[in-house]
TrEMBL record, chain A:
Gene3D superfamilies in alphabetical order: MetI-like
Protein name as catalogued: Binding-protein-dependent transport systems inner membrane component
Polar residues bias: start-end ranges: 13-31
Keyword Acetylation: no
Cellular localisation: Cell membrane
Assigned protein family: Belongs to the binding-protein-dependent transport system permease family.
InterPro entries membership: BP-dependent_transpt_permease, MetI-like, MetI-like_sf, OppC_N
Top-rank taxon, per record: Bacteria
Region (Disordered): 1-31
TrEMBL record, chain B:
Residue stretches spanning the membrane: 9-27, 106-126, 138-168, 188-210, 250-275, 295-321
Protein name: Binding-protein-dependent transport systems inner membrane component
Source organism of this protein record: Lachnoclostridium phytofermentans (strain ATCC 700394 / DSM 18823 / ISDg)
SUPFAM superfamilies: MetI-like
Short name of any one Pfam family annotated for the protein: BPD_transp_1
Length: 603, 328
């Protein structure tokens, strides 16, 4: 304890006190030898460490407290610096591309009549049904919705449907025909004679003055009329090579007729088209300046895109058809960007589905730890490491602010109660009792659900959470402060302050409270851990810190899904260890501080 | 002494009054209450009355049509007579539901309480006797880990290890799937198996503080003069520890333990919820999240009463165990 030649050092150091410091300072300017003579004997001089130095020395002797301090510093760096260093954002969602086999087109082998309606003509579904009935029973004429339709067979499974404009009917009674003209129509003699002649000859049509009249027969009644083409019914599908081309009825009729009859060419509206048949399908083209220009494709297959934004060109369709005919299960086509795309063809009865591997943007959820995401990603596709850092910020910040609120309230109310005593003490302590008795967890849960239903902004919610927890936690501090002050109040130094006429607030806050500070520090350190635990429990239950803000508790709440709990340990285990480590470290430090402050506990 | 007890009980009654008033005020301020949800549900049925009509009718039915202050005194008047009304969520009288569920919580509490004492006191004493040894550090670290462990995290780890990986216990619930087919002994074993993990959780997370408390007190006693005297007299170390030190350590420990006795009925909300044990904690959590005012009021008042009772018991015990302490 004795020291020599250390006077100056000690004077410079604020951390150390020297008994009888005052004279030494005064003599600083004096001659060294004089100083020596005037000073106390070195033997009498006792070096006393300042109280804070003493506490510090005792504190660093405690291994656990040192470990705790390191953990806390580490946690602070992790949370506050880590958040800055981390390349990711708190709520950055990671998207990835993944090849997914998606339905691209459906292909059906057509076995039903498909109708091509002439532009501007009305061809209702009811009539379509009648067409099928008429075809099945071999009739050449049928009536539907008060109109007479004629069915002309142009080839196998190729029918032309025409609406008959009725002119007259003729009834044959005992060999003589009785012609009655439909109201509003006139019938020239030539037509009448032609009609009779046709009935006689059992013909179905005749031509007068360039107009073709059609006769249809129902028992003994014959009807006469002019035909008007309405639609074409066929089993074949015709697709134009150019998306803008609209194939006319006449073209379709001629093309199919030519195909059925096995012709090589046909002519429509002055253009000669050539047919290149291949099995049940054919390519129709015309020549332009000696070059072959593909015009249409004729086939049995209906190829329809599944997505509405896809246009399937004829080349693709014919490729698919060919593949189906050849029994292949995949086709390869180069797309506009020059990439080869493989399409898979799956058969289901008469239905074929063409699937393509398309790049689909997906959120990367529950990715295992990797180089880019050290702890993987969570259920929202966010980086867990970064979430842990930001969660640490929130948890530590809540802890500190709540402790500050609690300590402030506790010191003020406890100090007032302890100093004034009597009815003030009684009143304040009853308030303390009331707050002490309110079960805090259920109350916070209820307040949390109030905030839920009010849809409080998550940011504001954090502040509310701090205030609620602060308001519920102060009674313990107040009790301790009051107890300490009650005993300190009776000591001599307080009598001295009274005698010196120091004002009451000054007496409380400058002379009483500083004496309570060791206990306050210990309480606050231990309290920090407790608050972080409470906050994480609340966030775990879903009533504390809410998404998008991260907190260690709400990161762990992913375990409420058993699948996540079992398979994705990296989502919740690190967060749990963060809480455990931080709270443990605060408890280590608090423990160390208590031992350091309390000389009774020294070894 | 009796005067002191009577005075404390009377103060407690006043405190309870204010606590319940504060809680009642808060819970009546909940914007989307049980009643509003129900009214919205009923109003959305085809051909139903309008929402406001339903709301008025239901409020009258549930006795919520009066103001907060009036409502509170109505509640208080019947609560004093022991009538806490019918639970809205469970549709049976609150006290009946309480009587059904409290025993599960109590058993959980008692078993973990006994385990705590059995583990904490010997370890605490051991730790104090060998202060600053390796054993002391190990026990201190173990105790502090117990205090610092988030209950929900520890419970989840237990579930992962023992329920999922080892398959020894069920993940949730109080009874197994074949409970109905078991005989009496089998039923007991089934429930006991379901209680293992919750009890382990509760014990581990609460054993630490008692251990620390025992250690601190034991250290204080070991540093006192009479122990030095006893040693100086040449008594054997075991006599010093077991007869002189231990008995004196018991004084504060008994008061602490006595104070936690009423807490055996409080239930462990988070642990019970995690394991879905239908105790008072889980039940009140369900009631709370659905806005069941009668049950919630009962539960909160009950909890406040337990806290007050715990304080009272520990104060009385302190006076009983240590004759030097005078109350009054």
């Amino acid at each position: 304890m004795e020291n020599k030649n250390e006077n100056n050092k000690q004077n410079q150091s604020n951390a150390s006190l020297v008994q009888n410091n005052q004279p030494a300072q005064n003599e600083k300017t004096m001659n060294q030898s004089v100083e020596r003579k005037m000073a106390l004997d070195d033997d009498q001089r006792v070096k006393v460490l300042s109280p804070s130095m003493l506490v510090f020395k005792r504190f660093i002797r405690n291994k656990l407290a040192i470990i705790g301090s390191f953990i806390i510093v580490g946690m602070f760096l992790f949370a506050f610096v880590g958040g800055i260093v981390s390349p990711y954002n708190e709520s950055q969602v990671f998207m990835g591309y993944e090849a997914m086999s998606k339905d691209y087109a459906s292909v059906t082998r057509n076995k039903e009549f498909r109708y091509t309606t002439v532009d501007g003509k009305n061809f209702p579904s009811a009539v379509k049904a009648e067409v099928i009935l008429a075809v099945n029973s071999g009739k050449s004429e049928f009536t539907s919705m008060g109109n007479v339709y004629a069915l002309t067979k142009e080839g196998e499974n190729l029918y032309r449907i025409s609406l008959m404009d009725k002119y007259a009917t003729a009834t044959i009674i005992r060999g003589t025909a009785d012609i009655s003209v439909v109201d509003g129509k006139t019938l020239s003699e030539a037509v009448k004679n032609g009609f009779l002649a046709a009935i006689e000859a059992k013909e179905t049509s005749f031509t007068v003055d360039g107009v073709t009249y059609q006769i249809s027969n129902q028992g003994k009644e014959y009807s006469l009329g002019v035909l008007d083409d309405v639609a074409l019914a066929s089993h074949k599908i015709l697709d134009a090579y150019n998306a803008a081309t609209k194939l006319s009825l006449e073209f379709k009729l001629q093309a199919e007729k030519a195909f059925i009859e096995g012709k090589n060419s046909f002519e429509v509206e002055g253009v000669t088209y050539y047919i290149d048949s291949e099995g049940s399908s054919a390519t129709i083209y015309y020549n332009e300046n000696g070059n072959q220009v593909n015009y249409a494709q004729l086939s049995d297959f209906v190829v329809a895109p599944i997505g509405s934004d896809v246009f399937l060109d004829v080349e693709f369709k014919s490729l698919v058809q060919q593949a189906i005919n050849d029994g292949e299960t995949s086709v390869t086509q180069t797309d506009a960007e020059g990439n080869e795309v493989v399409y898979k063809i799956e058969r289901k009865n008469e239905q074929y589905t063409v699937k393509a591997d398309t790049e689909t943007q997906l959120i990367q959820i529950y990715q295992s730890p990797s180089k880019s995401h050290w702890l993987g990603t969570d259920g929202n596709g966010m980086d867990i490491m970064t979430r842990l850092m930001y969660g640490g910020r929130i948890s530590l910040m809540i802890g500190f602010i709540v402790v500050i609120i609690q300590t402030f309230l506790g010191v003020v109310l406890g100090g007032i109660a302890g100093y004034f005593g009597k009815w003030v003490d009684n009143l304040i302590m009853r308030i303390v009792d009331i707050f002490y008795c309110i079960p805090s967890l259920p109350l916070i849960i209820i307040l949390g659900s109030i905030m839920d239903s009010l849809k409080v902004n998550p940011q504001v919610r954090i502040y509310f959470l701090m205030i609620i927890m602060g308001l519920l936690g102060w009674p313990g501090v107040a009790r301790m402060v009051r107890g300490q002050i009650l005993s300190l109040r009776e000591q001599e130094f307080m009598t001295a302050t009274e005698a010196m006429g120091i004002s009451i607030p000054r007496r409380i806050f400058r002379h009483l409270i500083p004496n309570v500070i060791p206990q306050l520090i210990v309480m606050a350190t231990m309290g920090l851990g407790g608050i972080i635990l409470t906050e994480s429990s609340l966030s775990f239950l879903g009533i504390g810190v809410k998404f998008p803000f991260a907190s260690w508790g709400n990161i762990i709440s992913a375990v409420s899904n058993v699948h996540v709990m079992t398979n994705y340990w990296f989502v919740w285990i690190p967060a749990g260890f963060c809480i455990l480590l931080t709270v443990l470290a605060f408890n280590f430090i608090g423990d160390g501080l208590r031992d350091a402050f309390d000389p009774k506990m020294k070894r | 002494m009796w005067k002191y007890i009577v005075k404390r009980v009377l103060t407690s009654v006043v405190i309870l009054f204010f606590v319940s008033m504060i809680i009642y005020t808060i819970i009546r301020c909940i914007p989307t209450s049980f009643i509003e949800t129900l009214a919205r549900e009923k109003a959305s049925l085809p051909g139903a009355k309008s929402y406001t009509e339903w709301l008025d009718q239901l409020k009258a039915t549930y006795g919520m049509d009066s103001g907060i202050i009036q409502g509170f005194f109505q509640w208080l008047a019947s609560a004093v007579r022991g009538e806490f009304g019918d639970s809205w969520y469970f549709n049976i009288p609150v006290t009946e539901k309480f009587a059904n569920v409290i025993w599960d919580s109590f058993y959980l509490g008692v078993v973990s309480f006994v385990l705590q004492i059995v583990i904490a006191i010997p370890l605490g004493i051991l730790s104090a006797r060998k202060q600053y040894s390796r054993t002391d550090y190990a026990i201190t670290v173990f105790a502090l880990i117990g205090i610092s462990l988030p209950g929900f995290f520890f419970a989840t780890i237990l579930k992962l290890i023992f329920s999922i990986h080892l398959g020894w216990f069920d993940l949730y619930g109080k009874v197994g799937r074949y409970y109905g087919q078991l005989d009496a002994w089998g039923k007991f074993l089934d429930v006991a198996a379901h209680f293992v993990l919750p009890i382990a959780t509760l014990t581990i997370i609460s054993v630490g503080s008692l251990m620390r408390y025992t250690r601190t007190n034991m250290l204080e006693v070991l540093n006192s003069d009479f122990i030095r005297t006893a040693r100086a007299k040449g008594l054997s170390e075991s006599t010093v520890i077991n007869k002189h030190a231990f008995r004196n350590t018991l004084i504060p420990i008994v008061t602490i333990i006595g104070g936690t006795l009423p807490g055996l009925f409080a239930g462990a909300m988070i642990t019970e919820t995690l394991f879905q044990i239908p105790g008072i904690g889980y039940t009140s959590y369900l009631a709370m999240t659905s806005g069941d005012i009668p049950f919630f009021m009962f539960y909160m008042t009950f909890m406040a009463a337990l806290t007050l009772m715990g304080n009272l018991i520990s104060d009385i015990l302190y006076a009983v165990v240590d004759p030097r302490v005078r109350v009054g």
